[in-house]
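fold-stage: in
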Amino acid sequence: MESSRARSNPEDPRTALAAADDARSRLTTGLRLPVGFYPMLATGIAVQVGAAAYGIAAQTVTGVAVALAGAAVFLGVAALTLHRFSRINGVRVDGLVSQVVLAAGAGASLAYLGSLAVAIVAAFESRWWLVAVAAVAAGVGCALGARHWWHAYRHDPAAHENGASPRMLALLAVAAFLGCATLLVLG
């Protein structure tokens, strides 16, 4: 008799936790990605990888400028897709930010770094068709990694909700900018 009263009491912590879990589940299943999210992400990453490979192989101020332009294109695409996600859903998911901006999943990171390495070597050898193939592979690999994370997040949001904070992303952006500025000054 006593235990049934505790379960029906709205101030019982178990009831509050169950209600919070239900609310999170309803929110998670109601989240939608913007139309064209994965193709836009793949395109932005492909442009960035191709530009980075060219810039690194060129080893000139123009090459660094091309690499920075590629990074700017990617960051613009990432900002646009994340803004559209927030506008559609009314929330921000930090784990999604990490997946989009940092390719934080193991598979996405491996696809990105492997493709970037192939693209750089190909650019040094002036095999531009291989640079393009590697750049597309990086974009597709990162988009598939983000897709895998999205499905896992919707299945178990508590286990996949963590991501880099906006403050950490800003620090990484500042560090990248300072590194590129140093290369321009010293190069």
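fold-stage: in (second)
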Amino acid sequence: MEQVRDEALAGLAASGNMEAFEELVNRHRMSVYRLARSITGNHDDADDAAQETFLKVYRALGNYDPGRPFRPWLKKIAYNTSLNVLRASRKRLRETSSEDVPEPADPAPGPDHWIEEEQAVSGIRWAVDGMPVELRTTLLLRTVEGMSYRDIARATGVRIGTVMSRLSRARGRVQQALEPGQRGEKI
């Protein structure tokens, strides 16, 4: 089934072919997880969002139009599901009393922190983690997933111009984070 297009597999899965659905899950589970992780910010919520995404996809296969690209359709479901999981997680966090919150990890950097490459990676992570969800997600879909502007627009429900603007702002934040003196680091 490796040479069968996603759209054809979705059609087969909609007809009850579980092998076709399993192939779709195997093909896309890591990219759905990465998208969910970029939105939720942690493994557990990302894992929940990815699982919930594939449940929703399975239930919605009857509504899928095989004449349209599968990947943007899947990413739109993953995007919306991940936002819902993020909202639920934030709500749970607000409802948690301060006594239930674990002690924060020691923020002191390790010895490798001062190595130049680690500073660059750390700066990028810092910049990406600090971005609003919309910028972070758009950057991930373009740079990691390699999606086109049009497919990103379909997946996130915005116009192509908005995708381009978000990418520009996200790249600017990453570039700024790589400049000396950012985040209080010494030159």
